[in-house]
Design a protein that fits this description.
The protein has 214 residues and is of the alpha+beta class. It folds into two domains: 78 residues, Glutaredoxin (3-Layer(aba) Sandwich), CATH 3.40.30; 113 residues, Glutathione S-transferase Yfyf (Class Pi), Chain A, domain 2, CATH 1.20.1050. 47% of the residues lie in helices and 9% in strands. A four-stranded mixed beta sheet has the order 2-1-3-4, covered by helices on one side. Helix 1 links the parallel strand 1 and strand 2. The longest helix has 27 residues. The chain is globular, with a radius of gyration of 17 Å. The two termini are 29 Å apart. The chain binds glutathione (GSH). The site of glutathione has 9 residues, from loops. Glutathione binds next to loops.
């Protein structure tokens, strides 16, 4: 695919855009990344508003088409790829794969996002006192199941590496930034993913520093 046809808008620091970046690399696409600094108003431009009226990242431009929603973008890239698939097709495996993604999207990520908005992004949002603690409690409660999945098999949701591993790498390391403890087996799982050829170093940026957003 031609580079000028696949453009990823990301932040100057780690964000959900790194999920898409990793997917692009795993599937061997050629792409261009445009990095914007929201703290310098670079996402408040007419150009980005036109691409995504909510002015959020990631945005992927593919020819005439504009895509938003990180997970949906990853699935699209997988669908149109000439390379191997990063999503299981056998119905039972596909069920467990989708179940893992839906669980993260509905039971973990919303609470992490509220935790983020009520801590590091506090100045931009208006959550009442106690919101952060409540959100973190919910993450702690719901993420236990994920530790069981990691203990049970090499990859999180299927026999092979899948988009779910990219998604959960981001989610687990995001949770770590809020001091959510995980088992030692989980660290081994993260290391396995980090050793992949296509793993983007940009994905590491947020894990060990509390100054970087998600
Ligand atoms: N559900 C969306 C969430 C997008 C999102 O909230 N992106 C964050 C960065 S990770 C953002 O741009 N936030 C800016 C804002 O909330 O104004 C996705 O997965 O793509």
């Amino acid at each position: 695919m031609e580079v000028d046809k696949l453009i990823l808008y990301a932040y100057t620091f780690r964000s959900r855009a790194e999920r898409v970046l990793w997917t692009l690399r795993e599937l061997g696409y050629e792409y261009k990344v445009i990095r914007l600094n929201p703290f310098k108003g670079e996402t408040r431009t007419p150009e980005l508003s036109k691409l995504n009226p909510s002015k959020k990242i990631p945005v992927l431009v593919h020819g005439e088409n504009v895509f938003t929603e990180s997970l949906a973008i990853m699935e699209y890239l997988n669908d149109v790829s000439d390379s191997h698939s990063l999503a299981p097709e056998e119905p039972l495996e596909a069920f467990y794969y989708r179940k893992a993604l839906h669980y993260g999207l509905t039971e973990i990520e919303p609470y992490l996002w509220v935790a983020e908005q009520s801590s590091r992004l506090k100045s931009l949002y208006n959550w009442p006192d106690g919101t952060y603690e409540n959100a973190i409690n919910q993450v702690n409660k719901n993420i236990g199941i994920v530790w069981q999945w990691v203990e049970r098999s090499k990859y999180i949701a299927s026999k092979e590496f899948s988009l779910a591993d990219i998604y959960y790498y981001h989610l687990i390391t995001w949770a770590s930034q809020h001091n959510i403890e995980h088992l030692s087996g989980v660290r081994n799982y993260l290391s396995l993913l980090e050793s992949r050829h296509a793993f983007p170093v940009e994905m590491l940026a947020g894990e060990n520093t509390k100054t970087q957003p998600i």
